[in-house]
Each structure stands twice: as C-alpha cells, then as structure tokens.
Design brief:
The structure holds two protein chains of two kinds.
Chain A lengths: L3 E4 L2 E5 L4 E7 L4 E9 L5 E8 L4 E4 L2 E6 L4 E6 L8 E9 L7 E2 L3 E6 L1
Chain B lengths: L4 E3 L2 E4 L5 E6 L6 E8 L3 E9 L2 E5 L6 E5 L5 E5 L8 E8 L10 E2 L3 E5 L1
Parallel strand pairs in B: 2-11
Antiparallel strand pairs in B: 1-3, 3-8, 4-5, 4-9, 5-6, 7-8, 9-10, 9-11
The chains are: A mainly beta, B mainly beta.
C-alpha cells in the first residue's frame, strides 16, 4: 500500500532564505508526482508535476526533484517571500491506478517578514 | 476559461441530515474526482466519475455517494451525516483517462460542518 510522508509538518523561516521541503513514498511504482499549494481553507493549486521518467521540474523560484528508486522528492523554494506561506502537499499517482492520487499530510510553511 | 467550480462554499448541517455538494468541471473535462480533507487526516480520495459512470471509490462507507450528469457536472451526497464528516470536500476534474494528460485541476472546495 502506497504511503506518502512529508517532513517536517511545519516549518518557519525568515524571508529571503532558500528552503527545501521533503516528500517520501513507499512504493516506487508511480506514474507521476505532483506538488500542490493550499492556502488556509481553500482548494489546491498545482505547482509542479514530475512524470516518473523525469528527474526534476522548474517553475520560477520553485524546483522539484524526483528520485523514484529511493522514494523521495524535494521541493526547493528559492528566495522565500511572505506570500509563499501556505501548506505544501506532495501527491503521487500510483502506476496501478488511473484515478487515485495519494497525498501526504503536508508541510505548513510560514515565511517571517 | 473558468476553472473547477464548487457550490456551496460553506454548508452547515446537523447530525443525521443529508448534504449535497456540487461540482462543475473545466469545460471539456469528462472526469470528476472527489476528495475529503478532514482535520488532521489529510486528503483522502473519495470517488471518481468518468463519462457518467462511477469508476472507482475510496475507503468510505456507502452513505457517501454521488453521480455525474450528462454535462459532466457532479454531485456528492452524504447521507446520515455524522460529526466526523465535517471536512473540506474538494472536487477535481481532468481531461480523461489517458494518463499522460490525466492532470487533475482542483476547485476551491466546500466546507461542510456537521453540528
């Protein structure tokens, strides 16, 4: 059974710092991995999608990496800003399922001005 | 282009009542997914509808049900509400079953409170 874990559960850093969020998954048979952002009480915004054949994806100040063999992904945020404060969710789509996305419990990020 | 829309934004019910949540997918999308985000439990997959049919469901009791209409919009019905059904319910849509294009786009959610 696929399980997705995100550590730490919460993170607070001063503005301007570079930071890394971690995601691990137990079954390497995934089709893709996605990072989402969720603002309090709101839905999800997709940040980056990495297909299983890819190693990383970049969008602006965000860079996500994927190491399927070790079951790990990282989301790197450069030059953090207060507007980056949100919960960041990692989710994997198992190769065996066309529908289910399995989510981690998220990392709640707070950027201090 | 409009994204995934959900209504209502908030819904307050009492225990034992029924709740109906609605979702309109992105135009051209045929698949609709429902997720529950309960406090402390993270996001859990609930249901997947495609072309009007229920294709898959998560580990939820039968009182969670839904349907998809010919225009691909969807309803999620929760019967005999329990306090622990209080959660944010998120709907997502995708363009179909081809995995390469099966990226899910999420709505803003319906917050259900059961008193």
């Amino acid at each position: 059974k696929q399980e997705v874990t995100q550590i730490p559960a919460a993170l607070s850093v001063p503005e301007g710092e570079n930071l890394v969020l971690n995601c691990s998954f137990t079954d390497s048979a995934i089709y893709n991995l996605q990072w989402f952002r969720q603002d309090p009480g709101k839905g999800l915004t997709s940040l980056l999608l990495i297909q299983s054949s890819q190693r990383e994806q970049t969008s602006g100040r965000l860079n996500a990496s994927l190491d399927k063999s070790s079951g790990r992904s990282t989301l790197y945020i450069a030059a953090s800003q207060p507007g980056d404060s949100a919960t960041y969710l990692c989710a994997v789509r198992p190769s065996s399922s066309a529908s289910k996305i399995i989510f981690g419990s998220g990392t709640r990020l707070s950027i201090r001005p | 282009e409009a994204g995934v829309t959900q209504s209502p934004t908030h819904l307050i019910k009492t225990r034992g009542q029924q709740a109906t949540l609605r979702c309109s997918p992105i135009s051209g999308h045929t698949s609709v997914y429902w997720y529950q985000q309960a406090l402390g439990l993270g996001l859990q997959f609930l249901l997947w509808y495609d072309e009007g049919e229920e294709r898959n469901r998560g580990n939820f009791p039968p009182r969670f049900s839904g349907r998809q209409f010919p225009n691909y919009s969807s309803e999620l019905n929760v019967n005999a509400l329990e306090l622990e059904d209080s959660a944010l319910y998120l709907c997502a849509s995708s363009a179909g079953q081809t995995l390469a294009k099966n990226i899910q786009y999420f709505g803003a959610g319906t917050r259900l409170s059961v008193l």
